[in-house]
# Entry
Amino acid sequence: MQKQILVAVDGSSMSNAALKEAIELARERQAKVRVIHVVDSPYTYPDVLYGQFSADLEAVRKAWREAGQKVLDQAVAMAREGGVHPESALLESDAKRLSSLIIEEAQRWGADLIVVGTHGRRGLEGIWLGSVAEGVARTAPVSVLLVRGRR
# Structure
């Protein structure tokens, strides 16, 4: 039975559905929950940023962190409203794959279940868009619950 549930959120309806499922499981199993949000680093795309506009990358990084913290704060509030008092963490990609960071955090924290939302895209749409959820499901050393949200 899972006692440490890590849930990754991005503010989408899919991740909110995953968070609701993690809250429910945590209440049922009296498990701990850790909510994480991964901010993609602007240093990953400097040529794109500079090609589009002149920007101070530190200002962009700060804005992305602030936006990520808002997503995380909303998720924590949602968990508390659901009767769960989670830990939380804001992570930054620094050019790593988001799925890899989620798995690394799950291992570091000792999670025995990772919960992520998925669009459930298939075919060419899924291939072209890629999927953080798919990357987590394929490479995680612990159980993964994929929760399909509404589009």
Notes: Strands lie at 4-8, 32-39, 87-92, 113-118, 143-148. Confidence is low (pLDDT under 50) at residues 124-129. Helices lie at 13-29, 46-52, 57-81, 98-109, 123-129, 132-139. The chain has one domain: 4-123+131-148.
